[in-house]
Amino acid sequence: MDSSMKRRLLVVLVLLIAVTIAGCGPAGSRLLSEPLDAEEVTGILVVLAMGNPEYGADSKMIEERGEIDALVASLNGASIGARVNDMDLAVADASRYHIYRGDVLVQEVVFNGNDSERAWYHARRFWHRSGWHYVNYPDETPYQLYRDSDAEVVVVDEELRPMQRPTE
User: Fold this and answer.
1) Rg of the chain over CA atoms, in angstroms?
2) Helix residue ranges, H only, the chain
3) What secondary structure letter does DSSP report for 53?
4) CA-to-CA distance for 156 and 149, rounded, in angstroms?
5) What H or E segment, with its residue span, contains residue 81?
6) CB 118 within 8 A of CB 111
7) Distance, CA of 97 to CA of 109 (rounded, Å)
């Protein structure tokens, strides 16, 4: 094989590797590293973004089976989209979805702000980048399901303990 042919082969090989790596980026990956089994989930504590810790954050403990099933389906169906540019991040604290099996925390999902459309994605492969990514859902977002939930709103502090908001 002459040197010209070797160079062409090398270029083709490099292009194949680049296309393979680009195609395996986080876009299209699942939000959750492992899908949740809704039957095993006993509760989902949703804590909205906290502004001033002195006033706490609204939260709901989702324990009704139909609501758990809907939230688990939403999270299991969520796929990672493009990385969020720093300029496009909401100036907000994170909202957190704590997923429990009995008293055991099995997973936590972190969103930028309350709307659940930008999530923290922890890269599972060396060529991905951890960071805030847009999230695509097949149907309702977790935040829509939180808002529609009949669970009681409880104000919690930074340690997730119920608290009373100060009155002025």
Assistant:
1) 21
2) 3-23, 65-77, 142-148
3) G
4) 18
5) strand 79-83
6) yes
7) 5
In whole angstroms, give the CA distance from residue 149 to residue 155. 16
| SS3 state of residue 155 | strand
| Rounded distance between C-alpha atoms, residue 90 and residue 133, angstroms | 12
In this prediction the pTM is: 0.80
CA 62 – CA 54 distance, rounded (Å): 24
- Of 22-26, 55-59, 145-149, 164-168, the least confident: 22-26
Percent over 70 (pLDDT), the chain = 80
In 84-142, the DSSP E strands lie at: 94-101, 104-112, 118-121, 131-136
In this structure, are residues 123 and 129 in contact, taking their beta carbons and an 8 Å threshold? yes
Q: What b/e sequence results for 80-108 when a residue is b if at least 16 CB atoms lie within 10 Å of its CB, and e otherwise? A: bbebbeeeeebebbbbbbbbbeeeeeebe
For the purposes of burial, counting CB atoms within 10 Å of the CB of 48, is it exposed (0-12), middle (13-18) or buried (19 or more)?
buried
Q: How far apart are CA 111 and CA 97, in angstroms?
A: 8
- Per-residue tokens: 114: 């309350």
pLDDT for res 21: 40
Query: Which conformational region is residue 50 in: left (phi greater than 0), alpha (psi within -120 to 50 degrees), or beta?
Result: beta
Chain length of the chain = 168
